[in-house]
Design a protein that fits this description.
The complex is a heterodimer. Chain A is 25% helix and 23% strand. By secondary structure, chain A is an alpha/beta fold. In chain B, the strands form eight sheets. Chain B has a seven-stranded mixed beta sheet. A seven-stranded mixed beta sheet of chain B has the order 18-20-16-21-19-22-23. In chain B, helix 12 links the parallel strand 13 and strand 14. The chains are: A alpha/beta, B alpha+beta. At the A-B interface, helix 1, helix 3, strand 5 and strand 6 of A face helix 1, helix 2, helix 3, helix 12 and helix 15 of B.
Chain lengths: 259, 1008
């Protein structure tokens, strides 16, 4: 298959669209930027794409709660077309605000008879924070994390604390290998993490979650902010790596359609 | 896909008979965290209560919520809460019709119920978004408003007042309702009855003229009122209110800079100098000189004429830079003031040329100490800690939402900022070369896009030109605006697309003075006719004059050829941005204002822009006599080390991580050097570097320099020191000193006093002198005058606090290839440390003086030619890869610079000052004191143009050779043990482990 087409969804307040598109293109994709109004007007256009990406930002200002308004819009206007997109074997990625939207719309973790099984809410600090975190993966299922064991990436959010409804939900997600990405120390340990190693107080240090197929993935860290060696906060002392840790995630998404 | 939220409990004990699809109802939804989740709003109130020492027994339970008005049933509201308003898993809600008893039941022993609502007309972004989302879901909602609700334990009356007025509610934007909330409906404004108002000026006495100026908040002087009276007498008619307002806005200090761009007669120790236009003949003229010196290689593109200055960047792009102040609004409502400050400066770059894309922000603040005791505050003043928290949140929430990285900043504390905090907001924009200029064409349509117009910020321009007093927060409520970043983000998205499709011929932002300034400026050469009744309003009831001068946020004005309007309108609609034709640039030379068919104003552009009477101002400068070195006790090693810790812990030097981490400094994907650097990502970087074009290796560095304490001694040297510092910071990370452009922001006291104006003119002359030698052009600037606060003290006498003379220099540097950037953290044990530059006994205005409570000493000066050569040679060494780390020496001098490099790198250092010569010492003083003072100077002097650099041992000779004639002194080595040792004249004077130094530096502003 030639270059997979990537639909980068824009909405009022989206702000990581350009660099996310750049990262996909660098990984071998062909990105287009589509406004939510345009997608709602002609939802069938989504069939021209292999990957749908919801980039970071503050959709509709994150007013009411992060991602909530766009989630509600997508739920009420795009549920069918996105379900079809997904069931045809395509990929959906949500980064930061995109993750919040995927969670709150129920696309990532569908609701059961008690409603949504989990949410993302305010950091324990009550504030926005921008810092770098160590991450480790459970890549049994998640397409985007294939062959990736650990990553070092920046986070930048105010509402990134993962809260499952209860222990059963958490255990089930874990057992299903859906808790695909979690905060840890540089040595991989994740016992009793505190700020800033677990920057928001997420339950079980969860930083990213995939659906039961591994083809929908949402994460709070920003892989598109570490694709160039000079993105690393200590490149002037530790020297340049060949590429940033985040690039592999975009390459996995693109290669999924080439394998 | 979500069916329901189970945590919803409802109540509907008030009459249900009012319900039904056609009857308008007003619902209240209270939202709480579920058990086990933190109540952030309560914690915030309790934290602030602790700051203000409210009784410790205070208990609070808080809720956030929405008032929703429309023909809605109970079932509708239940759906709204579950599908939109209440977060699953972590929140629950209660809702009922407003006024229902169920909503006002005490919670346990918490019996006091308080509801805080935004005042009618104040921007409420959450409510606007909620309304839009509810309508998207198909609900017939008319109005939404947010509120906060608090139940508190009983308090003494004084604590209760403190809680209401200083913590829960800021009465310039909010109101507080005690007890049950009873409301029939949310007001939507009242219908406006048109009537044109004329203001006869003919034959009025001087007193009567000045009364009009004051009553209408015009801030016009008597001479200006005379000029206006005479102008309309000649026309044989009275001016209308809108004509008078238009003139006042255009002539305001804020919009026209009439003081600094005016005639000034200046006198100092060197004699007299007459200026026709002071700024033009100093700072602007320096840039003209540099451009002509550079000839063919002039890299300035547009300076001092557009909304931001523009210089060349690479073959495809130019860059624009502007820094604005938003001081007065931030004093009254810190959050709104700061967020509209950043919003405003972003519109400046968006409105530069045909539109620059904002790529990074810089924010610099001046406050009184956050530890100021509450009882020492003058009346009517907000506590500096609350101002600081509000300002930081305001910048954070706006900058982050705009998706613009905030990469640089500084905070300076001095008690004299208590009534006048300073908030500088800056923005850099990237603009395609061919889009750098604009020109309105005759008959272009005047189109406004973005936010709607309300009463927000009426008289902001004229208010900001007046002095603050303790009653300012009462009289100027209309001047406070709240921003809505997403409206501006949407506007920005549309603007950049429309620019690339070439749909418009000119654009500018709507800032101070609103449409009156924007349209007035754009139409200056042509003329304009404006149809005020077509302007989209937030609510009914605005008069034509209010529409014209409103400073409602997030609006920009475009000049659009008629043939492009349809396409432009369609583009805006596709992104849900409102665009409206509000007039036309008609080639008449007149500004004609219409409301419906009525002409309400008709003034010539020449009267507006050239009619202001010239005023000659007196300015004098009396040099501060140079004082002897201060007397102080001889110091031991322990005491020198304590001094170092004190300076590291002083709030100006201390780590600003609490602020920096709240800003998104990496969005847009071009981060190269972050604000915090080093082995634990927490050392104080000198300047940030970004790569604005993702597929290019060219970088842009942003830094600043400011030191108001030097200004107390000599504003000339304060200015040159600030320039030197800003450039040092840029050069330290690898920027090319021949490609640094700078901006000036003067914030001064009451410049109608000749000596205050004199100190400013002196600083401007310094800017001219140094920038010409350095060949570093000023490309834009802004001033804010009359920063004084007046109040009546307890003894009944009138007191005035003037801010220290404050000049912020912001620098924008360029890095040819970011691979050559370096940072300030020590890299490797065994490397050699050098000082670059010359140390003098410059302890006047130093932080060593400050922490020891000393005064006197010499102010740091700049030796211009030496500075120029030092910057160039050091840059060459950095470009050759010879320098492993580099840190600028500023507050706290050598000792602070080395300490910061050491703890940032997690490596120790052992140095001596043996090679650092120092020419000082008045010979008649006591020799032991002399020795001690020399030690103080070697350790802590703030002499300019100095750096500490780290060089790999094998590169030492090459480095020395590369530096040529520039003074370079070997200091010592980097060591792996985590200790800092400094020897002066073979005595160890500083000895400390790094943890102690680092904790001193981290602790001061490490807020929760």
């Amino acid at each position: 298959m030639p270059q997979p087409n990537v639909l980068i969804l824009r909405a009022p307040g989206t702000n990581c669209d350009q660099e996310t598109g750049y990262a996909f293109d660098l990984a071998g994709g062909n990105s287009s930027f589509v406004h939510i109004n345009q997608l709602i007007e002609s939802p069938e256009m989504v069939s021209d794409y292999q990957i749908l990406c919801l980039p970071g930002g503050f959709s509709y200002g994150d007013d009411i709660a992060a991602g909530r308004i766009l989630a509600s819009q997508m739920q009420s206007r795009l549920a069918d077309v996105l379900a079809e997109f997904h069931s045809s074997g395509k990929l959906i990625l949500g980064i930061c605000n995109g993750f919040q939207i995927l969670i709150k719309s129920g696309f990532l973790l569908p609701p059961d008879d008690q409603g949504l099984p989990a949410t993302l809410t305010w950091n324990d600090s009550g504030r926005f924070v921008d810092c770098w975190v160590n991450l480790k993966t459970d890549n049994e299922k998640c397409v985007f994390l294939k062959n990736i064991e650990k990553m070092y990436l920046p986070i930048a959010h105010a509402e990134g604390k993962f809260v499952p409804r209860n222990k059963q939900v958490l255990n089930q997600l874990k057992g299903d290998h859906q808790l695909a990405l979690s905060y840890c120390l540089a040595n991989g340990s994740d016992d009793d993490l505190v700020y800033p190693d677990n920057p928001n107080g997420s339950t079980a240090n969860v930083a990213g979650v995939c659906d039961t197929t591994g083809r929908i993935f949402g994460l709070m860290p920003h892989p598109e902010r570490f694709i160039d060696p000079t993105h690393h906060p200590r490149w002037t002392r530790e020297g340049n790596s060949a590429a940033g840790d985040g690039l592999a995630l975009f390459q996995n998404a693109i290669n999924f359609f080439k394998d | 896909m979500v069916d329901s939220v189970t945590n919803t409990t409802t109540s509907s004990d008030k009459s249900q008979t009012t319900q039904g699809q056609e009857t308008t109802t007003l619902w209240q939804v209270d939202i709480f965290p579920v058990a086990g989740q933190p109540n952030r709003l309560s914690s915030e109130v309790l934290d602030n209560a602790t700051d203000l020492r409210v009784d410790e027994s205070l208990e609070v339970i808080a809720a956030r919520g929405f008032l929703i008005q429309g023909p809605l049933t109970h079932q509708d509201v239940a759906r709204l809460t579950s599908e939109l308003l209440v977060e699953p898993v972590v929140e629950r809600c209660e809702f009922a019709l407003v006024g229902s008893d169920s909503l006002s039941q005490p919670i346990g022993k918490l019996t006091n119920l308080l509801t805080v609502l935004p005042l009618p007309g104040v921007t409420d972004p959450q409510a606007e978004s909620a309304l839009m989302a509810m309508r998207h879901l198909g609900f017939p909602v008319d109005v939404v408003r947010t509120f906060k609700k608090f139940w508190t334990s009983s308090l003494s009356e004084s604590d209760q007042n403190l809680l209401h007025s200083k913590i829960l509610c800021n009465d310039s934007i909010e109101m507080i309702v005690v007890g049950k909330l009873e409301l029939d409906e949310l007001q939507l404004g009242q219908k406006y009855e048109f009537s044109k108002q004329d203001i006869p000026l003919a034959n009025l006495s001087d007193e009567a003229l000045m009364k009009i100026s004051q009553d209408w908040t015009l801030s016009l002087s008597l001479i200006e009122m005379h000029t206006i009276r005479d102008h309309f007498e000649k026309l044989g008619r009275a001016p209308s209110d809108i004509e008078l307002e238009s003139i006042a806005q255009t002539w305001s200090e804020h919009c026209s800079h009439k003081t600094l761009a005016g005639r000034i007669s200046y006198r100092d120790e060197n004699g007299e100098r007459q200026f026709e236009n002071m700024l033009k003949e100093t700072i602007f003229s320096a840039t003209m000189q540099i451009r002509s010196d550079l000839g063919e290689s002039d890299w300035c593109v547009s300076v001092f004429k557009d909304n931001a200055g523009i210089v060349e960047f690479d073959n495809s792009y130019n860059i624009a830079f502007k820094v604005e102040t938003h001081n007065r609004p931030s004093a009254l409502e810190p959050y709104g003031g700061a967020n509209t400050g950043i919003g405003g400066v972003i519109r400046d770059t968006l409105g530069t040329g045909l539109g620059a894309k904002p790529i990074c922000n810089t924010d610099v603040f001046c406050f009184a100490s956050p530890d100021t005791p509450f009882e020492e505050l003058p009346p009517g003043v907000m506590h500096p800690r609350r101002i600081m928290k509000g300002v930081v949140s305001g910048v954070r929430d706006y900058g982050n939402r705009m998706g613009i990285p905030t990469v640089n900043g500084a905070v300076f504390f001095d008690e004299r900022y208590v009534g006048n905090p300073l908030v500088f907001c800056g923005n850099v924009g990237l603009i395609p070369k061919e889009k750098s200029f604009k020109e309105v064409q005759p008959n272009d349509l005047i189109v406004s896009i973005g936010g709607k117009t309300g009463r927000d910020g009426i008289h902001g321009a004229t208010f900001s030109s007046a002095e603050l007093t303790e009653s300012s927060d009462i009289t100027s409520g209309g001047a406070v605006q709240i921003g809505n970043a997403i409206t501006e983000k949407m506007l920005m998205d549309v603007l950049l697309i429309a620019r690339d499709r070439e749909l418009y011929s000119s654009v500018t932002d709507c800032g101070a003075g609103g449409y009156s300034s924007a349209v007035g400026e754009m139409g200056e050469e042509i003329g304009a006719e404006v149809w005020l009744d077509r302007v989209p309003l937030k609510y009914d009831g605005l008069s034509y004059t209010e529409i014209w001068i409103s400073e409602a946020q997030e609006r920009m004005v475009f000049a659009i050829p008629e043939s492009n309007w349809e396409q432009f309108e369609a583009l805006c609609a596709s992104e849900s941005v409102e665009a409206t034709v509000i007039g036309q640039f008609k080639p008449t030379g007149q500004l004609v204002l219409k409301y419906g068919d009525e002409i309400v104003g008709d003034v010539s552009m020449s009267m507006l822009h050239d009619g202001r009477p010239p005023i000659i101002r007196e300015a004098t400068y009396q040099p501060v006599p140079e004082s002897d070195i201060p007397s102080f006790e001889f110091k031991t090693t322990a005491q020198w080390t304590t001094d170092l810790c004190k300076i590291l812990a002083s709030p100006n030097v201390a780590s600003k991580h609490w602020i920096i981490r709240q800003y998104d400094h990496e969005v847009q994907g071009g981060s190269v050097i972050k604000p915090l650097v080093g082995i634990q990502n927490d050392g104080p970087g000198d300047a940030a570097v970004v790569r604005p074009v993702l597929n290019s290796r060219r970088g842009l560095a942003v830094s600043c320099g400011m030191n108001p304490l030097y200004g107390d001694l000599d504003t000339y040297h304060m200015a040159t020191s600030a320039i030197d510092e800003a450039i040092r910071n840029c050069v330290s990370v690898g920027a090319d000193p021949t490609r640094i452009a700078i901006l000036d922001n003067f914030c001064w006291g009451y410049t109608d006093r000749p000596e205050t104006l004199g100190s400013l003119v002196r600083a401007a002359i310094a800017c001219q002198d140094l920038s010409v030698v350095l060949q570093t052009p000023f490309i834009s600037g802004k001033d804010s005058l009359h920063n004084e606060f007046s109040y009546t003290d307890e003894a009944g006498s009138r007191q005035t606090i003037s801010i220290p003379s404050t000049l912020l220099i912001s620098a924008m540097g360029q890095v040819p290839d970011v691979a050559n950037c370096i940072t300030m953290d020590l890299k490797k044990a065994g490397n050699v440390l050098f000082q670059v530059g010359v140390t003098g006994d410059h302890l006047g205005g130093s932080h060593w003086n400050l922490v020891n409570n000393l005064s006197g000493g010499k102010v740091p000066t700049v030796v211009p030619e030496r500075a120029k050569q030092t910057f160039i040679q050091l840059h060459h060494a950095i470009q050759k890869g010879l320098v492993r780390s580099c840190h600028d020496m500023s507050e706290g001098g050598l000792a602070v610079a080395v300490a910061e490099m050491a703890f940032a790198g997690g490596l120790g250092a052992k140095i001596t000052t043996n090679e650092v010569g120092i020419e000082i010492l008045p010979s008649d003083s006591d020799s032991q004191i002399e020795l001690s003072y020399a030690t103080a100077a070697l350790l802590f002097a703030e002499s300019n143009t100095r750096f500490v650099v780290e060089i790999a041992r094998e590169n030492v000779e090459q480095f020395r050779a590369s530096m040529g004639d520039i003074d370079v002194q070997e200091l010592g080595t980097v060591i792996s043990e985590p200790n800092l040792t400094i020897e002066v004249a073979s005595n160890t004077v500083i000895q400390s482990d790094l943890i102690t130094l680092k904790n001193a530096w981290l602790g001061t502003l490490d807020w929760k």
